[in-house]
Amino acid sequence: LGEEVIQNARTIADKLSTYSVMANALGKQDHHQQSLKLSRETVQLCKEYPKRGYLFHIVPQLLSLRSYFKRTSDEEFFRQHPVVADLEDRDKADRTVTVMSFMRQIVIRGFLCQDVLSWILAMVRMLHITRRDGICEDTGAALVAFALIHVILGEYENATRFCNLAKAVIDRANGNKRMEGWTLFVGVTYIESYSIPSSDVASIYKKAYTSAMAVGELEVGFLAYFSCLMHAYLQGYPLRDLLPAI
User: Most exposed residue of 100, 102, 156, 211, measured as fewest CB within 10 angstroms of its CB?
Assistant: First the structure.
């Protein structure tokens, strides 16, 4: 059905909306490689993602971002970049949100498929699009992925900073908070769990679970649910106190 809709589509916008539904559906069916491939090809069609030489694109853009955030405070970041949802140019706003949603699919599916270059490149492209066009909810997903890079580099203070900035973006982006569950889950699993009390870790997992389930992100909800169960098991907590029954 999706292929038939695409063949009959009159504009790029019509095709993009169909591709978005297809990529999201493939991901929810655990066809992560197919979702990743479709999302990557779509943003290449929009000329926002290179077709080859990923590493040669990642290094200069990553260095540029590190330099930018080193000289820019969080308050300045928000002052410099408008919320996309508030832009008067609705065509530009809609295109930015659509492209960012595909980039987010690449980050998530690439992460789950262990395609490191794909998700890192998508992350740096998302942050450059944010600097060019403004903040949207998917910027939060990019920032928490950026925080992961700093964990790998051993820069835990910066990792915590970008994790908190990602949460602030979700709150300010005027979206439906569809990315809140994923942002909280990644942040607490890979960054915050090392520096906050274990009771706070459980609380964040609970919030990630309820937030994801509230917007139909079952995949993220179950990830948060089982991560919380494992955390409870390791800490010796009573399970009945952590999550409601499913």
Answer: 156
